[in-house]
Design goal:
Rossmann fold, 8-stranded mixed β-sheet, 7-stranded mixed β-sheet, 15 helices, 26 strands, globular
């Protein structure tokens, strides 16, 4: 039995759409899902998705996972990810989203830091045995009590979620649907190190509103999400935006540009959500003939300091909205003006253009006294980024609670326009796409490879940074890093470049 409160959850939003149009198309898999996971692509209506969500929720309940316990999820950009998140919420669980590039070392840290009780993955993703990775990480996490996955040839001891969907169990339990309850945990890296960031349903809905209202996505839109949903921005721009618009969510597993264009064309997608640098590749004169249905492009900038120097958007048929991302701290967006250049970001409240002046849908942006950008508002979890408290016996006065997050991005005001100029990312933090590292950690890992080994981050226009490594024997260095359970960004930094393009 589900008791509904005044503040909605993501599952309540889903049920409202289900009640209106159960037979409408809800979720579309990547058309190359066979290559990614070994299974054929699915097309689910809201009624079909609801049955799968209920079956998965029943499985989690029958597995003995208590209310409000944490379930870690590491899945590709397929319908199973969206179904699992909604099923976990229907079962009263909190979802910890884990990036796909994480291997055993990062997974183990995340499971232990959050006290996760279960982990969900897929048998194989892009040829990598993620089921085995999950089993090994779970063996090092005392809190894990249940390991489950999608796909065939699952290891012994891993429960099959495909079988759970087929069995269609009707087990339920009383759940209070309250948007103020914890919904997800994502993971960030700050100057203080690895940091889990919890968020409520209302935080996610606020993030989705920032996307929806600034880009003016119409109700009933067909969305194409080509941004990995393993972060706050990834989930709010895909799952959250889909539930707000009540349309269809098509998913693309990043990245194959030819497959992506084919999906947009064949599935008549009118809105594309993708990393901004990749979205800008569509900025060509023949876009209307190639993708005639496309009307909205939402570009997510993991390196927001690059927005002002980006090329102008020249496509008349589709508008471009820049979304500034600041790790897991928060985001805001600005639709480009008629000349295609990035819109100026003024200090103060960031509201949708069609709202009354001074609205604060996305929150507030301002500069701190030390010249860094800070965020506050309905999507910002200030407590998760609060500085550590002094020891209990310390004579140092306890600091007052903050209602904002200092992103640590250096910024200044333009003297002529008053707009905020973001000048550089946080010091000491390297970002490779959506993955952030402390520069000191790179050196610590390099030291474990022996004398003369070097691992560093080099500037990269597309991804922010790229990793490069040097060792006396690169092949042995790669094998050692694999043995340590590190992600492939670090492993491939030591590739042999003699034959590289």
């Amino acid at each position: 039995m589900i008791q509904t409160a005044a503040s909605p959850t993501l599952d309540v939003l889903f049920r409202r759409i289900l009640a209106r149009k159960p037979d409408a198309l809800a979720l579309l898999d990547p058309i190359n899902k066979q290559r990614v996971t070994g299974f054929t692509a699915k097309r689910l209506t809201f009624a079909e998705a609801d049955r799968a969500i209920s079956a998965l929720a029943a499985h989690f309940i029958e597995a003995g996972l208590p209310n409000n316990s944490i379930i870690a999820v590491q899945l590709p950009n397929t319908v199973e990810l969206m179904l699992t998140v909604l099923a976990a919420h229907r079962a009263g669980l909190v979802v910890a989203v884990c990036p796909l590039l994480w291997r055993q070392a990062e997974l183990t840290v995340a499971l232990n830091r959050t006290g996760a009780r279960a982990i969900v993955t897929a048998a194989k993703i892009d040829g990598i045995d993620h089921a085995d990775l999950a089993m090994n990480a779970a063996a090092e996490a005392f809190s894990i009590r249940h390991v489950c996955g999608f796909g065939t040839d699952l290891p012994e001891g891993m429960a099959s979620l495909d079988l759970a969907v087929e069995l269609q169990s009707s087990t339920t339990r009383p759940i209070v649907e309250d948007g103020r309850k914890a919904a997800i945990i994502s993971f960030d890296v700050t100057a203080e190190g690895f940091r889990p960031v919890p968020r409520t349903h209302l935080h996610l809905i606020a993030g989705a509103l920032a996307f929806s209202l600034e880009s003016d996505v119409p109700q009933g839109s067909t969305l194409m999400s080509a941004f990995a949903a393993s972060s706050f921005a990834g989930l709010s721009s895909s799952l959250g935006l889909w539930l707000l618009t009540g349309g269809t969510l098509a998913l693309h597993h990043p990245f194959d540009s030819e497959v992506l264009e084919r999906q947009i064309r064949e599935q008549s997608c009118d809105t594309l959500i993708a990393p901004a640098q990749l979205a800008l590749r569509l900025n060509t004169a023949d876009l209307a003939s190639r993708l005639p249905a496309l009307r909205n492009v939402i570009g997510l900038w993991r390196a927001p300091e690059q927005v002002t120097s980006s090329p102008a958007w020249t496509v008349e048929q589709a508008t471009l909205t820049d979304i500034y991302l600041f790790g897991e701290a928060g985001l805001f967006g600005a639709r480009r003006s008629g000349d295609g250049t990035p819109a100026p970001i003024l200090p103060g409240r960031q509201g949708a253009r069609r709202e009354v002046p001074g609205s604060s849908i996305a929150g507030e942006v301002f500069l701190t006294p030390k010249g860094t950008l800070a965020l506050r508002g309905p999507m910002v979890t200030a407590a998760a980024y609060a500085p550590p408290l002094p020891p209990s016996g310390s004579l140092v006065a306890q600091p007052a609670p903050r209602d904002f997050v200092d992103t640590e991005y250096a910024a200044r005001l333009d003297r002529s326009t008053g707009a905020i100029c973001i000048t550089s990312p946080p010091s000491g933090i390297m970002a490779v796409g959506g993955y952030r590292f402390l520069s000191g950690e790179l050196q610590e890992w390099a030291k474990r490879l022996g004398q003369g080994a070097l691992l560093t981050a080099l500037p990269d226009r597309l991804s922010g940074h790229r990793l490069a490594g040097r060792a006396q024997d690169n092949a042995r260095a790669r094998a050692a890093l694999n043995e340590l359970g590190l992600n492939p960004l670090m492993v491939e930094a030591f590739r042999d470049r003699a034959n590289s393009p």
